[in-house]
Amino acid sequence: MQPRHNPQRVVSGMRPTGRLHIGHLSVLENWVKLQEKYRCFFFVANWHALTTAFEETGLLYDNTREMVLDWLSVGIDPDISTIFIQSEVKEHAELYLLLSMITPLGWLERCPTYKDQLLQLGSQGKDISTHGFLGYPVLMAADILIYRPDLVPVGEDQLPHLEFAREIARRFNHIYNKEIFLEPQAFLAEVALLPGVDGRKMSKSYNNDIAISASSEEVLSKMKMMVTDPARIHKTDPGHPEVCVVYTYQKLYNPGEYEQISQDCRQGRIGCVACKKDLAEKLDAYLTPFREKRQILEAKPNEVREILAEGAQKARTEAAAMLVQIREAMQV
Ligand code: TRP
Ligand code: SF4
What we know:
This protein has about 325 residues and is mainly alpha-helical.
């Protein structure tokens, strides 16, 4: 295969976790930007969800739909990006099988995420010493390599998996003596690290998150839970914005005023209640267009299903063509 020319391609996936929170916004907004410049494939990694939660699949359909609604509401555009569910494109599974034949067991056992998660989930009483979990990086490599992307936007935690995909690509090309796969680059966008309202890592399981789809009332009530500088009792006490969660958010959602707020806080000229109210308004205004887009989509119950069906169709065409070449190289 010849190296491909423009447009360059991007592939990325997310496990279906349901409604996303505003901590995920920078990742999604990054996808939205990428789709302007690249041919993008964005998919719901529902098989990957099974690797750690094969016993709790009751919410998978719902979680997939809710997550895709979030993608669409922030501007992932099905007219220019290919959006689909992993399990709808069986070619990923065929490539997963073929790649598993050439994957040395040691590469998987050495994978840092494998060892970490096995211990971490093991300590929670969850046994995930399955074939599927061990093979997580092989499946992810198949997801990626089957579209011959140039770039893969991923979080830092996924870098070992991407490196694994590059190594498998190289190994395949070497064994079968053909340039079938490209070695894609990681695309590490700047990700704003947003704490949860209680100052811990933002997570649905801590109930300290703010959903992208939160209503104005929800935004306001989460704002009330948000922790401020504990040293401030009275409005006139000098504050320390650098230790305040509200201020971390002001920097992101109130770019025009946060410097003034910092001064006012330090000099005891603004109270935390007013500061939170101000932030609630800014954040609410930021989320309003997403909320409106979501409502339009929710009003058409078949819309998401149709988008995903069409996306799977397009992805399948690409993946199937690639598999022809792969099988030919392997002579199977
Ligand atoms: N493992 C990724 C995560 O948990 C999800 C994923 C699966 C993915 N396949 C992928 C990401 C392919 C990028 C490309 O975040
Ligand atoms: Fe935080 Fe604002 Fe209160 Fe200062 S005034 S401590 S920045 S909430």
